[in-house]
Amino acid sequence: MSEVEQTLSIIKPDAVERNLVEQIKEIFIRNNLIIKNTKKIILSKDEAAEFYKVHQSKPFYDRLCSYLSSGPIVVMILEGKSAILENRRIMGATDPKNAEPNTIRKLYGLSIDKNSVHGSDSVDNAKKEINFFFKN
Ligand code: CMP
User: Fold this and answer.
1) What residue segments make up the domains of the chain, in order of their start?
2) H helices within 2-135, ranges in order?
3) 56-109: per-residue pLDDT in tens?
4) Which residue in 33, 118, 119, 130 is the catalytic one?
5) What pTM, to 2 d.p., does this model score?
6) Under a CB-based contact definition with an 8 Å cutoff, are residues 7 and 120 in contact?
C-alpha cells in the first residue's frame, strides 16, 4: 500500500503571470492530490537563495534565485498517496522539451528556467520545503 504523503508545490512567476493558477490547481485535484494549504507570496532574492540552497554550487543558481523572486508565486501543500512521486509525474521533466504529453511542464512550461512549477523531490526535502513556507 502506498502511503499518504505531503509535498510542496510552487507555481512559478511565469505561470502566475499568465493566469494559469486555477488550471494548474485543477490538474492536481483531478489527479487525486488535495490542496491542504495555499498562499500567494513574493520572495526576496535572499529568501529564494535560502529555498534553493541545495543548488548553490550549480552554474544556474544565481539566475534561478533571481527568477523565483521576480514576481508572485503560489505555494501549496499537496497531500495524497505517494504525493511526492505523483506530483513529479504530473509536473513532467524539468525541461519542458523533455516532458511527457499532458504534464504541466509540457502544457505550460516555456523553458528550463520558466518551467511553471516546482515540486519536492524526496520525503526529506518535502518536510524541509513545507516547513520553509508553512511554519507552525
Ligand atoms: P525546479 O524543479 O524548481 O528545481 C530547480 C530549478 O532550476 C529547476 O526546476 C529549473 O527551473 C532550474 N534549472 C535551470 N537550469 C537547470 C539545469 N541545467 N538543470 C536543472 N535545473 C535547472
Assistant:
1) 4-133
2) 13-17, 21-30, 45-51, 61-68, 83-91, 104-108, 123-133
3) 999 999 999 999 999 999 999 999 999 999 999 999 999 999 999 999 999 999
4) 118
5) 0.97
6) yes
Count of residues making up the chain? 136
How many other β-carbons are positioned within 10 Å of the β-carbon of residue 45?
A: 14
SS3 state of residue 101 = coil
Measured CA to CA, the distance from residue 55 to residue 107 in angstroms comes to 26
Crossing angle of the two packed helices 83-91 and 21-30, in degrees rounded to 10: 130
Type and span of the H or E element at 95: none
CA dihedral 24, 84, 36, 127 (to 10 degrees): -130
Q: To which CATH superfamily is domain 4-133 assigned?
A: Nucleoside diphosphate kinase-like domain (3.30.70.141)
Distance 112 CA to ligand 1 centre (A): 6
Closest residue (by CA) to atom 10 of ligand 1? 113
Cβ neighbours of residue 82 under 8 Å, at least 6 residues apart? 2, 3, 5
